[in-house]
Design brief:
The chain is an alpha+beta fold and 171 residues long. Helix content is 39%, strand content 16%. The chain has five helices and four strands, in the order ααββααββα. Helix 2 crosses helix 5. It is globular.
């Protein structure tokens, strides 16, 4: 076997053994940014998240950032942990900045052992940050903190559902 064929065979074997070497046809999470979420809509997102938290008797901090990553609205429920104020804001900023739910980073670090993700400025490897997508564009993100990661995610999903509704099916 010639040396170039041997190198190609070795290269193919190495690439196929590492799932991170896969080359997607499209950029992942390639959702364009849109106009920033309005205060009124941000408050609606927070109201839905807080309603879910109250229903479950969870004390949460809820933040909504706009499409540029700036805080638009925030609510701290009575008794919610003080440290979670900054965490909720961080989750919202990370979700909008990186155009993906923060659960992606949590899974990347905890399940796939992609510890290099923690070296990126602004990453938080904790679920509870979800982009707000309206008409195919990111207008902001919600971030919740105060409970376990899974509790934070439940509350964030309830808030995000106010904006992240599936388009109506065409007839």
């Amino acid at each position: 076997m010639s040396s170039s064929k041997t190198e190609s065979a070795v290269e193919a074997r190495v690439m196929s053994s590492n799932p991170l070497d896969a080359i997607p046809d499209e950029i992942p999470f390639d959702v364009p940014y849109g106009s920033p979420v309005s205060l009124e809509r941000a408050q609606g997102v927070i109201n839905a998240a807080v309603a879910e938290a109250k229903k479950r008797n969870w004390k949460m901090n809820v933040a909504v950032a706009d499409s540029g990553g700036s805080l638009v609205a925030f609510q701290r429920m009575d008794g919610a942990m003080l440290a979670s104020i900054q965490i909720a804001e961080h989750k919202a900023r990370a979700a909008v900045t990186f155009r993906r739910p923060t659960k992606v980073f949590e899974d990347g670090v905890n399940l796939m052992h992609l510890d290099y993700l923690l070296a990126f400025d602004g990453v938080i490897a904790s679920r509870g940050g979800i982009p707000l997508i309206d008409q195919g564009k990111i207008i902001g993100a919600i971030g919740c903190s105060g409970g376990t990661d899974s509790q934070d995610e439940v509350v964030s999903k309830a808030g995000a559902a106010v904006i992240n509704q599936a388009p109506p099916a065409s007839k």
